[in-house]
Amino acid sequence: MKYLILVSFCFLISCAQITLEPSDFAWPIETVLNIDEKGFINESRYSISTNVIDLFYAETNDSTSFKNESVRLIRDTKGYYYMIASGFKNVYLFSANDGKFVLTNKFFVSEFGLDLPAFNQRKPNIELLEGEKHLVFIDSNGIKGEE
Questions:
Q1: N or C: which end of the chain has fewer CB within 10 A?
Q2: Is-cis flag, bond preceding 124, omega within 30?
Q3: Dihedral of CA 137/126/139/63: which sign?
Q4: How many beta carbons lie within 10 A of that of residue 55, not counting itself?
Q5: Tens digits of per-residue pLDDT, 93-147?
Q6: Helical ranges in 17-146 per DSSP H
Q7: Closest Cα to residue 34, out of 71, 4, 2, 83?
């Protein structure tokens, strides 16, 4: 019995001590994902699938505003996910937790909403564009100055 307790204790300690660093979770480019009729986006390359109806409701106060839209999604070096869609005034920052995307923060970027939002990876930041025009750099803490 003492041997079993000792082995279990050693196993728990050794598992808790593993840290793989440095790690870089960034995607090289954004992914543009069309929303299906049930409100889901799906990216098989990165194994991502989630329902975005609540995201569109949070932005527009309209639970049907997701129809015929797409979401722009990119992941930064720390593993945070940035989402935006045409007409959005905010960039939404999510973390993955227990099989869910959890809103971590949102950043106001436009009084009237963006027509052609796009993301670029600019380590350690994410660049937000309107069409081809640079708007701001963003990281998980917020909007950054020019870099």
A1: N
A2: yes
A3: positive
A4: 26
A5: 999 988 899 999 999 999 999 999 999 999 999 999 999 999 999 999 999 865 5
A6: 53-60
A7: 71
Residue 141 tokens read as 């803490």
Q: What is the H or E stretch that residue 12 is in?
A: helix 2-16
For residue 29, give the nearest of 144, 96, 126, 100 by alpha carbon: 126
pTM of the entire predicted model: 0.83
- Rounded (10°) CA dihedral 89, 70, 29, 94: 60
Of 128, 126, 83, 119, the C-alpha closest to 104 is 83
Tell me the three state secondary structure of residue 130: strand
Kindly give, in sequence order, each residue whose CB lies less than 8 Å from that of residue 123, ignoring residues fewer than 6 positions away.
Answer: 26, 77
Dihedral sign of CA atoms 111, 115, 116, 119 in order: positive
